[in-house]
Amino acid sequence: MALWIYFFVATASHGFLDAMTNGGLGVAFFSPFDNTRYFLPWRPIVVSPISVTRFFSDRGVAVLQSELLWIWIPAGLLAILMFVLKNVLKRSEETR
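The structure corresponding to this sequence follows.
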């Protein structure tokens, strides 16, 4: 069950994070029923260039810095928090 929850969160977060980018066409959250595209009001993530050559430029460095700040650091902190909580709960059950 935990693996299904993990995959659901990973899949759902992709659209949510795409809606937080500062470019592109937006996210069609309700496709195929409604093709309206949406952005979130707060868009701090720098959109990645499509071209490989433009990705390996100053623009690509800005994208990597933005993703590190807004995606990878929070995801790493969440993973550490979940690991610590799991161990704390495990220890509390062992002491009962």
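Helices lie at 2-18, 52-55, 58-94.
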